[in-house]
């Protein structure tokens, strides 16, 4: 057996006691242009593409004294890892565009009947085992490897294209690529197959730098809920807790400590919190860990855990306990996709955190405490399915109305849920994700004791709504921006 390797690969093999002939011995031309040209040579590609059952191919190899390759192993330059880094320069990204690697890999895949194309280290053991057992790699395996090779080069080129088109809002041809992170036991329902994929080139993804410390495998529904919880949690810098059920927040709390924040979030709707997905932005204390151990928690994610509290939580075998080690900032420019029949809807993400700048106080007065509740409710409302109404008081939700065809119905549900769980709407604030079209949408909340409303504004009957709020002696803020989420 003879090995041939280029540049750094040959040096690495020699350091580990494995002899490999350098590429330039075959090509008789040294590396050029700072390593940009190494393998782009007929003696390399002929050795890859020659068909062993084709007399003319074999005669051409003999004529030029070229030995054919039986296996081609390529690790492409890490373009997506480098290009996805914060602050990377164009020059740095361009230097990570591999030319020779994809060319050799595609050639080997095309000639899979005679050559073994390898592009994933996870395949090394299987290939070695087949070689040890049979002295060759089976045709079925070579065919699978060829498919992987073409998928790899296609994804690689798509990632580069996407990077170049990054400044083009919506290019004519849109080619996102994803890599499989894990197979899932099933999808939304047991009869649906499922897997989790992460987008190539994304700075971070749902499970990047997340360590599972305990519990069952994460399910499709767990991941969907976890995504909703983590997105909402990202709205807050103070200690915050987010409880999610069926991708909807059921309770959110912000406080001076994470223990208090959890109490606020859980008690906002303790019935819905049964079987919760919980996201926390501070480490779990021993006391909080012991409390969580007494509740039915599907998934909990936090930056860290007190060891005694973690031990108590581990007494429940099914609870999925995740440690969030991700410290990279989210990409505010990340686009969102929604599958529709035979196509894809693509839009800019709704990631910016709204503050008071640009908002208009259209009636009433706003103390700092009131503004705090209004902004809190507004940020939560952004993550509730439309039509969305959120009631909040003392930096916690007390009632959420979601996904209704009528905003009046959403308001009624939010008020009813608050009262059902012992929360008095008197003195609370209301957030609406889109404008309130008629005065009756505000009047029910005002009659329940709501003292301030935050909404986008922009309805034809805005003045009617303003008059109703003013008459009730309440406050209203127009944000000038809506946050539909369907």
Report on this structure.
There is one protein chain. The chain is α/β, with parallel strands linked by helices and 486 residues long. Helix content is 36%, strand content 19%. It has helices spanning 7-15, 23-27, 42-49, 55-63, 79-83, 90-95, 100-110, 124-134, 139-164, 220-233, 258-268, 286-292, 307-313, 368-381, 407-420, 440-447, 462-471; strands at residues 4-5, 21-22, 71-73, 116-118, 178-184, 194-199, 210-214, 240-245, 248-254, 276-280, 297-302, 320-324, 335-340, 343-348, 360-363, 389-392, 397-401, 429-432, 452-455, 475-478. Strands 7-12-11-10-8-9 form a six-stranded mixed sheet. It has a six-stranded mixed sheet with strand order 15-20-19-18-16-17, with helices on both faces. The longest helix has 26 residues, at 139-164. The protein starts with a strand and ends in an 8-residue tail after the last strand. The model has no long low-confidence stretch (mean pLDDT 90).
Based on the model shown, name its key terms:
486 residues; alpha/beta; Rossmann fold; Cytidine Deaminase, domain 2; 6-stranded mixed beta sheet; 20 strands
